[in-house]
Design goal:
With 225 residues, the protein is an alpha/beta fold. The protein has ten helices and five strands. The chain has a five-stranded parallel sheet with strand order 2-1-3-4-5, sandwiched between helices. Helix 7 (159-169) crosses helix 9 (185-199). Residues 143-154 have low confidence and may be disordered.
């Protein structure tokens, strides 16, 4: 497979340097951007010749612009980029909030580079990563506290779309879903895009929240790697 194009943004130069060196030895990951300033990332995206970033490792606390501001800009400028927030300000109580903001994974500083490599692969393949503890926290933060959204009839999902939602929540790829439903990968991608537009989400993590709130799936059905 092609190497995953990785971006690194952290205000600690040593962390950026060490991670860049570590990932340079990984034959599945290529660091295409690294910096200690989120503004530099936004400038990079404005360059028409910039390499696309598949997965971004993003710190929350930075000097000129914080990680949440960078995340918001990334969702507008590069919506296909999957963002992993890794921060010393990690708190269990904010996992639901971070997922709603559009992150594909939320990790504490101190996560080992080896584990981080596996999480990057999972996020690239499936669009999100939750560990067992986070799934249980999401159960309380999303299922019990978040209001259940109402879908009007005109924007309701079709039976086929509901099937695809359930399979996406099981971390199935478009190719795998196509094989299960006997449709083409391109058709699956088309359905997925329509689903995102209908329910107003930007990534698989947001789709999972929607599916949980509308009882299309439950947390016990989610595949946690």
């Amino acid at each position: 497979m092609n190497k995953i194009k990785l971006g690194l943004v952290d205000d600690d130069f040593l962390i950026v340097s060490l991670l860049k060196t570590f990932f340079s030895q990984n034959n599945k990951i290529q660091v295409v951007f690294d910096h200690v300033d989120g503004l530099a990332l936004l400038e990079y995206l404005e360059n028409s010749n910039h390499l696309p970033i598949d997965v971004l490792l993003l710190d929350l606390k930075m000097k000129t612009i914080n990680g949440l501001e960078v995340l918001k800009e990334m969702k507008e400028r590069s919506p296909e980029t999957k963002v992993i927030v890794i921060s010393s300000h990690y708190q269990d109580t904010t996992i639901g909030f971070m997922v709603k903001e559009g992150v594909s994974a939320f990790l504490p500083k101190g996560t080992s580079p080896l584990e981080l490599s596996e999480i990057i692969l999972q996020v690239y393949k499936n669009g999100f990563y939750f560990n067992d503890k986070q799934v249980q926290l999401l159960r309380s933060q999303i299922s019990s506290k978040a209001p259940k959204p109402l879908i009007d009839i005109e924007n309701s999902l079709t039976e086929r779309e509901i099937e695809i939602v359930k399979l996406l929540c099981q971390q199935k790829t478009a190719k795998e879903i196509g094989e299960v439903l006997f449709i083409t990968q391109r058709t699956v991608e088309g359905h997925k895009n329509n689903i995102f537009l209908k329910i107003g989400v930007k990534n698989i993590a947001g789709l999972i929240i929607f599916a949980l709130q509308n009882q299309l799936v439950n947390l016990d059905e989610l595949v946690v790697m």
